[in-house]
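Predict structure. Input: histidine kinase, 537 residues.
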Amino acid sequence: MRPRWPRRVFAQVLSAQLLIITGVTLLAAGLFLAPLSSRLDDQAEQRALAIAQATAAQPGVAAALLDGHPSPDGPVQAAAERIRLATQASYVVVIDTQGIRYSHPSPALIGRHVSTDPGRALSGAEWTGIQQGTLGRSARGKVPLRDTEGAIVGAVSVGIPYQSVRLTLLHSVPGILLYAGAALGAGALAALAVSRRLRKRTHGIELSEISALLGEREAMLHGIREGVLALDSGQRIRLVNDAAQRLLGLGPEDVGRPLDEVLPAGRTADVLAGRVAGTDLLAVRDGRVLVVNRMRTVDGGAVATLRDRTELEELGRELDGTRGLTEALRAQDHEHANRMHTLLGLLELELYQEAAEFVAEVAGTQRATAEQLTERVREPLVGSLLVGKSAVAAERGVTFRVSPDTWLPDRVTDPRDVVTVLGNLIDNALDAAAGTRRDSQPPWVEADLRAEGGTLVLRVSDNGPGVPAQARELVFSDGWSTKEPTAHRRRGLGLTLVRRLAERYGGTAGVTERGGGGAVFTVRLPEAVRILEEVNR
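Output follows.
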């Protein structure tokens, strides 16, 4: 039956590591034993050669061979056996030039021809090797036997039992295997520790489940409409889904690059990098309003989510504009009704001349006011807002005026943003001024709009009660208001929108005290006005 491979990740890793460690250990043992066997063979052959050389150098061996005949009782046999016993060799055989034995451990073989070729030794060369002879396989050494004149008169052959070489090798194996087993055990313990840590990190899930989870994560990240951007501890992008690519203008090739390299310096990069703290932070990228939330991860990185609020912001601005227009129309309708009643009364009293003068005065005043605004405020939407707010202010008994220093060209980048900021500032000032009745000084509100290069500066002043120093930041908080909420409208949103729009442009929104009482709200919107060179291109 085929063994079943474990399914869990840690078990697979443990099994793989044990197999690898076992294989490496066996390979190392084999690589160690192979040269050891060869080295033992060489040692046995050199020992046999040394014994043969010592035998051939014995005085009287060559002379006894020349003077006598092969005999079990001869001097050559006696000398050879003495050396064999002393060295524990398998045999010491002395032969003449014809290959006839003069000595042998088996006396019956004396006088017979040797079983192996003695040609190299009889030719004057020494030889070593492993051979099979009458006494079995042995490590052999053969040297020539010379007389006193140096002439070759025979040869000496010495054999070391090959079995003793194998026994030496086998005796070394247990020690080698002991060390190999210790290495295998240490490796197994290390593999077990790694596997347990891996099991804890993977929560014991199977490898197939990891693959499925990865597929589900990819489908979820790239399927949702909200953008997801993951950063590592070095602020490099490691994941960006399709929605984030669309909202931030990034591509798959930007993965792995530092965030500050792929995004220009500004609020969006600061929010994503965590240099601006908070929740539901507004950022702008290529004209889109993004709500960003950032959460740190355990490895020092972070995951940021991005929601596209462009459409919602546009709807909010349209709603503000519609509400302002409605209030302006209501105020104009009320004012128009008062004038019509006055005109009707003059006609009923048959004061025709006075009626004509009244109509001319009202029409002339409105035309003059509109002409003055048109000369100073070239942007139609902003000018229309100021005309409408003047009607609302008149209805509420507040004098509304535009500063003589006001100058707004028709090169506003996004007039709707300016309308939102200016409309909320004026509404807030009207509420403050209308709630303060002074006999010596009637309530008033003044708007001042100036283009300083590419920066638009909006300043709205009033002679109301002002804003206490401790509340000058709170007035821009979401939901904070000194007025009671109405049933149909939430308070505390207007100035919050002003601050967020200013931050979206990279500008500021603040409030200071006006000399003589009241408040001055100042908003700076960088790059809200296109410079003349850009317009002429």
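Confidence is low (pLDDT under 50) at residues 484-492, 532-537.
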